[in-house]
Design brief:
Blueprint (H helix, E strand, L loop, with lengths): L8 H16 L6 E5 L3 E3 L4 E7 L4 E4 L6 E16 L2 E14 L3 E5 L3 E4 L2 E4 L3 E6 L11 H8 E7 L10 E9 L4 E9 L6 E6 L7 E5 L2 E15 L3 E5 L3 E13 L5 E11 L3 E5 L16 E9 L3 E2 L5 E11 L15 E3 L3 E9 L2 E14 L3 E5 L3 E6 L4 E6 L3 E5 L5 H10 L33 H29 L1 H22 L4 H20 L8 H10 L4 H16 L7 H21 L1
Helix pairs in contact: 5-6, 6-8, 6-9, 7-8, 8-9
C-alpha cells in the first residue's frame, strides 16, 4: 500500500500567496518618455508619451519649450493578468506642434509612485524645414475644421425688388465627430431687407451631403427676406461657437474610444445677392409696390338698405407675396355718403415660401338720404416675378340702393323756405323760477367766536409742520439722483410717445419718436444708458426682470419695426397699430417691473 501524505491546507495557501506577491511585485518601477520621432518638419506633429508600469500621482509635465501643445494631456490605462502575473501600464500623451526650426530639448517630467519621485530622461528633437507630406497626427482643431461646416443656403441670388428670398442656416457635422453644444456669437443684421424669422421648434438631425461627402445636418435658423433696394446687397454671416468631441486613437480602461474636446468658431460667410429693379416698361400708374401673385376684389355686406342704416365695404387682396409692404387702393365713394376711417385687417402666415394670406380695408358707410349710389370700379396693380409682367385687376361696379329715407332735394327746399322756428308757449313756461324765498337776518359779530374763526386762528400752527414735511420731502427728491433720472426718463418717454401720436401719418417722424420713447422708457426702468442698447441685451435684461416672453417679443418687434421703417413703406393703419401696441406693451411691462 502506498503511503499517504497528509496535506497542510493553511501552509499550502501561504506558499501560493507568497508566490503571487512575488510575481506581482516582480520588476522595478519604470517611468520614461517616448517620442513618436526625433526629427520632424515644422509642418508635422510630434507625439510625446510619458509611460509608467505602476500607478502614480502628482504628474508634472515639462514646459515643452519650442513647441505648442495641441492636445493633451490625454490619459490611457491598460491592465492584464497572464499566468498569474499582472501587467499594468499608464500613459500621459501630448500632441505638439513646433513653433520654429532648430534643435529643442524636451526636459524631464516627474511623478510620485509609492511615495517616491521618479523623473524621465530629457530628449532632444530636431525640427527641419517643412516636408511635402507631413505624417503627423492631426490635432483636434484640425479635425474639427475638416468635419464641421456652417452653411447659409439662399433660395434666390438674383431676385426682383420685394420678391421673396429665404435663407436657411444648416450646421453640417461629419460622422467622424460629434457636437455637444453650441451658442450664437453674432446674429446677422439684414440691412436693406424686410425680414422675419421662421421659428425652429426643435433640432432634428438629417442625412445629407456636403461637397459630395456624407454628413448629418441640423437646421439652426430660417429667415424670410424681402429686398427693399435694388443692386448688390450683402447678407451678414451667422457665427457660432461650437463644442466638438473629436475621437482619438486612445482607448480607456474598458476599451472605449477616448475623445478630445475642443471649441470651434464657425461662420456661414457673407452672401451677396443681386437685386433686380422692377421694370419701368409697362408699369401702371396706380402701382404701389405689390410683388407676387394676388387676387383682388371689392365687396359690400349689403346692396339694399334704409337711410341711417350702415353697410360694410371691403377692399381685399389675397394670395402670395409682400402682403405687408404695399398700400391697398381706396374706393371712390359718392360725397353724399358718410364714410368712416377703414378698419385694417390681416390674416397672414409666413413660411419659407414667403407671406401668404390676405389683407383688407373695411369701410363703414352710412347713407343719409334715399336713392341709388354707385361704387365705381377701382383697380389694383402688382408685379408677378414668375411671368415678369405687371397685372392690373379691376373690381366690379356696385350699386347701393337706399329704399327709405328723406330725399336730399326736398330736405334742401325745406331748409331754404323755412328759416323760422315755431315756438310754443304754455302757462308753466317759467315754473323753474322761485318766487318765494326764506331769508334770515344776519347776526352782529357772527364771525368772531364762531368755529371758522378758531379754525383760521389755528391754521398757521397747522401749516408750520406741513411746511417742514414738504421741505424735507423736496430735499430728499433733490438728493435722489437716480430717482430724478428715472422720473426724467419717464417724462421723456411720455413726451416722445405723445409726439409719436402727434406725427401719426408721417412715417419717418413717427417711428423716430416711437423709438426714442421706447428707449427712454427702458432707460427709466432698467437704469442703463442709451448707448448700451442692443436688442439682445434688452431681451436678456427683461428676462432677468421676470418679464414674460410674450411681452418681450412684442417690445423687440416694435424696435424692429422702428428700424424697418427707415427703408420700408408703412401704412397709416400699421403706424396706428404700432402706437397702440407700444401703449399696451409699456402698460404690461409697468405691471411686471
Amino acid at each position: 500500500m502506498p503511503k499517504l501524505f497528509k496535506i497542510n491546507i493553511p501552509l499550502l495557501f501561504l506558499v501560493f500567496f507568497c508566490l503571487f506577491t512575488q510575481a506581482q511585485d516582480k520588476g522595478a518601477v519604470t517611468f520614461e518618455m517616448k517620442l513618436s520621432k526625433n526629427k520632424l518638419g515644422i509642418n508635422e506633429r510630434l507625439r510625446v508619451d510619458f509611460a509608467m508600469n505602476k500607478d502614480g500621482d502628482n504628474f508634472t509635465p515639462p514646459d515643452f519649450s519650442g513647441f505648442r501643445v495641441l492636445m493633451g494631456p490625454s490619459q490611457s490605462i491598460s491592465s492584464s493578468w497572464i499566468n498569474g502575473v499582472r501587467s499594468y501600464s499608464k500613459t500621459y500623451s501630448y500632441t505638439l506642434a513646433p513653433t520654429a526650426r532648430g534643435k529643442f530639448s524636451i526636459k524631464q517630467a516627474s511623478i510620485v509612485i509609492g511615495g517616491k519621485i521618479y523623473k524621465s530622461l530629457a530628449k532632444t528633437v530636431e525640427v527641419t524645414a517643412a516636408v511635402d507630406k507631413p505624417n503627423g497626427e492631426k490635432s483636434a482643431d484640425a479635425i474639427a475644421d475638416d468635419n464641421l461646416h456652417l452653411v447659409a443656403e439662399v433660395s434666390k441670388t438674383n431676385p426682383y425688388l420685394n420678391e421673396t428670398v429665404s435663407v436657411v442656416y444648416k450646421l453640417y457635422v461629419s460622422p467622424q465627430i460629434s457636437v455637444s453644444n453650441y451658442r450664437p456669437l453674432d446674429n446677422p443684421k439684414y440691412n436693406n431687407f424686410w425680414s422675419q424669422d421662421i421659428q425652429v421648434s426643435r433640432l432634428n438631425a438629417q442625412n445629407g451631403t456636403y461637397k459630395g461627402k456624407a454628413y448629418r445636418y441640423v437646421v439652426l435658423k430660417r429667415v424670410v427676406l424681402y429686398p427693399q433696394k435694388s443692386g448688390k446687397l450683402e447678407i451678414e454671416p451667422l457665427s457660432l461657437e461650437v463644442t466638438v468631441d473629436v475621437p482619438t486613437n486612445k482607448r480607456d480602461f474598458f476599451g472605449g474610444r477616448v475623445y478630445s474636446q475642443t471649441n470651434k468658431t464657425v461662420s456661414a460667410g457673407k452672401r451677396t445677392i443681386n437685386v433686380k429693379a422692377l421694370p419701368e416698361k409697362g408699369k401702371p400708374a396706380d402701382f404701389s409696390g405689390a410683388v407676387g401673385d394676388f387676387d383682388f376684389k371689392v365687396t359690400t355686406s349689403k346692396t339694399q338698405l334704409n337711410a341711417s342704416e350702415s353697410l360694410q365695404a371691403k377692399v381685399e387682396v389675397s394670395g402670395k407675396g409682400n402682403l405687408k409692404l404695399f398700400q391697398l387702393p381706396k374706393p371712390n365713394l359718392p360725397s353724399s355718403l358718410e364714410v368712416y376711417e377703414p378698419e385694417f385687417k390681416e390674416g397672414i402666415r409666413t413660411n419659407l415660401a414667403g407671406m401668404q394670406g390676405k389683407v383688407s380695408d373695411s369701410y363703414t358707410i352710412v347713407p343719409a338720404y334715399k336713392g341709388k349710389y354707385p361704387i365705381p370700379s377701382i383697380s389694383f396693380s402688382y408685379f408677378n416675378p414668375k411671368t415678369k409682367k405687371y397685372i392690373t385687376e379691376n373690381s366690379e361696379e356696385i350699386l347701393i340702393n337706399v329704399i327709405k329715407g328723406p330725399s336730399s332735394s326736398s330736405a334742401t327746399n325745406q331748409t331754404n323756405s323755412n328759416n323760422k322756428q315755431v315756438v310754443s308757449s304754455s302757462n308753466n313756461a317759467f315754473h323753474f323760477i322761485k318766487t318765494k324765498t326764506s331769508l334770515q337776518a344776519i347776526k352782529s359779530n357772527y364771525f368772531f367766536g364762531s368755529t371758522p374763526f378758531y379754525l383760521w386762528l389755528l391754521l398757521p400752527l397747522l401749516l408750520i409742520p406741513m411746511y417742514i414735511l414738504l421741505r424735507k420731502k423736496r430735499e430728499a427728491i433733490t438728493n435722489d439722483v437716480v430717482g430724478n433720472k428715472v422720473r426724467k426718463a419717464n417724462k421723456l418717454a411720455k413726451k416722445y410717445l405723445s409726439k409719436a401720436k402727434a406725427t401719426l401719418g408721417t412715417k419717418d417722424a413717427f417711428y423716430v419718436a416711437l423709438e426714442k420713447a421706447l428707449h427712454n422708457y427702458l432707460k427709466a426702468k432698467l437704469k442703463i444708458e442709451t448707448s448700451e442698447f442692443s436688442k439682445d441685451k434688452i431681451q436678456v435684461l427683461l428676462s432677468e426682470k421676470k418679464v414674460d416672453t410674450a411681452t418681450i417679443d412684442e417690445f423687440i418687434s416694435l424696435l424692429k419695426n422702428c428700424e424697418a421703417a427707415r427703408y420700408s413703406p408703412f401704412s397709416n393703419v400699421q403706424m396706428q397699430q404700432d402706437y397702440d401696441k407700444a401703449s399696451e406693451v409699456i402698460s404690461l411691462m409697468d405691471k411686471q417691473l
